[in-house]
Each structure stands twice: as C-alpha cells, then as structure tokens.
Amino acid sequence: MKLTPYLYIYILFALSACTHSNSKNTVEKLPTPTLAIPANDSVFNPTLTAQEKQLQLSIDSFYTKAYLRGAYNGSVLITKNNRVLYNKSFGVANKKENIALKPTTSFELASVSKQFTAIAILKLYEQGKLNLGDSVGKYISNFPYKGVLLLDLLNHRSGLPNYTNFCADYIKVRDTLLSNSAVIQLMCTKKPLPQGKPNGRFTYCNTNYVVLARIVELVSGLDFPTYMHQQIFAPLGMRNSYIKNKHNAYAANEAVGYNTRYTVYGIDMHDGAYGDKGVFSSVQDMYVWDNMLRGNSFLKQITLKKAFTPYSFERDGKRNYGLGFRITLNDDKRPELIYHNGWWHGYRTLFYKNLPNDIMIVSLQNTTGKFVYNIKPIVALLTSGATTNAQDLDE
Q: Quick check: 356 pLDDT over 60?
C-alpha cells in the first residue's frame, strides 16, 4: 500500500496539532521493570499426574475433532491451578509458505490487546506519572469532548464516538493507514457527535483505547510499540509479543489472518491505529502474561485490582467491565470470570480466567470462524461437570 501525498500531509499535521499540554513527564527516564516470571520448557510441558493426562487426552480429542472438520485453525493453551495441562497448535500459520502453527506463533490479538493498553496506563499510574481521574484534555490540547477522564476511557464510559465508524465519513483516501494521532486530530477538528455523556453509561468503543495508547506515548515520551517492548514485553520475557506496523510483511513466526476459505484477509485505514488492537502475541506468552496478573512484582495487586473491579451498574445482570477486561460477577457482585474476546481482519481470539476454579484458557485462531469461543465443554470438563457461568463469549 502506498502513502498518498494527501494523507502524508494530513498525518504530519495531525502529529503536531493535538499535543501534550503538560510535558513534564516526557523528559523523565522510565525505570526498567523487573522480570515477573521466567518461562521454560518444563513450565509448558510439565510432568502430569494420571488424572491430568486423562484431562489432556479429552481436551485433545475436542480440539482435534474441530480441526479435522475444518472448524479450528489455531493455538490453545489451558491451565488448571496454574499448571499447563494443554499446549498445542493446529493447522497453518502461513498457507502459501506451508508454515505450520506452533505454540510460539504470534497472532494479532484484536480486542484482547485492550488489556495490554490498560496495564500500560496502570503502570504509569503506579509510577506517579498520571492519575486515572485526569481529564483527557490535560494531555491532548483542543480535545473537544469535555469532562472525559482516563478512567472513563478505560472502562468504556466516555461516550466518545467510535473511530471505526466516523473516520470513513471524513477520509476518502482508503489505501493508507491512519495513525492514532490522525484519528485524534479528526476528533479535534471534525468533532463527530458523541454516543453519550461522560460516565453516563457503558458503551464499548474502540476509540477509548486508541486515545489511551496516544496518552501512553505523550506521557512516556516513547512511541507506543517501543514503550510496550521496553516496559512490558521484554521485562516480562514475552519473546513473541510486539506491536506491528501493518505495512510490514508477515514475519516467519507470525500467523497470517485468513477468512474461512483461507483467503488472506485485507487491511484498511483502521489498521494503522493501535491500543484497541495491534498487539501480536503467542499462547505461551499469554501464559507469562497471566502469571504477571497473578503476581505482585510487576504491578502491585492493589493496582491490578482496579482492572478487575466492575464499574457499570446502570443495567441489571452479571456481565460487567473493568479496565481492559470483561467481567462476569457472582451472586455477591464479585468477579467470577475475567476475560476478553477479539476479532479483527482474519483473527479470532479468547483470553479467559475462571477464578473460583483457577482455570485459564487462551485460544488464538487465524481464521474468521467462531469455534475459538467454544469453551463450555472444556470448562465443564475441568470443573468435573460443576455448574459455572461459562458462556459463548462474543465480542
């Protein structure tokens, strides 16, 4: 794809027009976080008990049958009590090059990426570089949506318009990629109508996380891919995780996104923005990520608790949203399931944590089929048929 002169000038203007209104933090050197958990072959291929081996065989039968009937092309990793019970891949990463998927293959995580952006913000919060109660206008001058706080972005209560809808109303050149800055500049200049008032109600909106990723850049002084590599992926040992410029070719260890007929899924102007999507990772790296969420060395548990706290109660029901994570509540209104799904341009993704039974499932698929979300039988198997709130979790 070519960067047209029109949009090249537009993006340069965008980068300069909406800026940090308080640059104090941009000159400070960020500390290097410590490694949260080492991961090695013994972690991903532990010695299993006889009962665990039987569970593994049943899980394998479930996914093998799905693969053989053409319903599943992906990688899956499942833990119980933080022990890896299942870690396997099915199908192709790159059909043209005849490259098979592996548990270390990187997939576009789609909306599962949002939790990474949320953790980046919480890291800066814990370091005292921002407050969740700060207004967006503190960081982006001329931001036209007054009263929107960082917390409102994180929990999808901002009322902002969705950029995957309004960008097409103003940009007629479709053969290039819009940056986060360009998206925000459209908001600053065109002022598309909001979906609601700040903190009025929960409205899932990708724009929230595009803005958050830009704020990470403005506060840290690093572009978002560099920040995520230096401050999150590398310190945690997530060796196959990164944020990719979609102009670049597929890497050797990267899963190509396909439709169900294995035609390569195209990209469009929204692929240039990240924060709402754009993280590439493997199932094994997601195990490392899960252990960070369990621990206290990378972020304090009191900070992580904010991510798993429900914030929207204007509607009755057990489904809710934290900061980058969907939540299902128990009868006492406490988190029981923590999860997120994603879909974007040939990828379907699932990250699921069942807290009462200490189950974690990460399933990444590089075709547009929805089998990736079918985890009810697995949860039932791992809980010995116990009743759970597991469900087909749609985006």
A: yes
Contacts of 62 (CB under 8 A, 6+ apart): 377, 378
The 8-class DSSP code of residue 334 comes to -
SS3 call for 391: coil
Does residue 6 register a pLDDT over 70?
A: no
Q: Is 183 helix (H, G, I), strand (E, B) or coil?
A: helix
Pairing type for strands 347-354 and 335-344 reads: antiparallel
The answer to whether 318 and 389 are in contact (CB under 8 A) is yes
φ, ψ for residue 280, nearest 5 deg: -105, 135
pLDDT tens for 136-146 read 999 999 999 99
Q: Provide the pLDDT for residue 2.
A: 39
Containing H/E element for 124?
A: helix 114-126
What residues pair up with 106 in beta bridges, in sequence order? 254
pLDDT over 70 (residue 27): no
Where in the chain are the domains? 52-382
State how far the Cα of 23 lies from the Cα of 219, in Å rounded to an integer. 7
**CATH number for domain 52-382, candidates 3.40.710.10, 3.30.2000.30, 3.40.190.10, 3.30.450.20:** 3.40.710.10
Tokens of 377: 């039988």
Residue 101 pLDDT level (bands cut at 50, 70, 90): very high
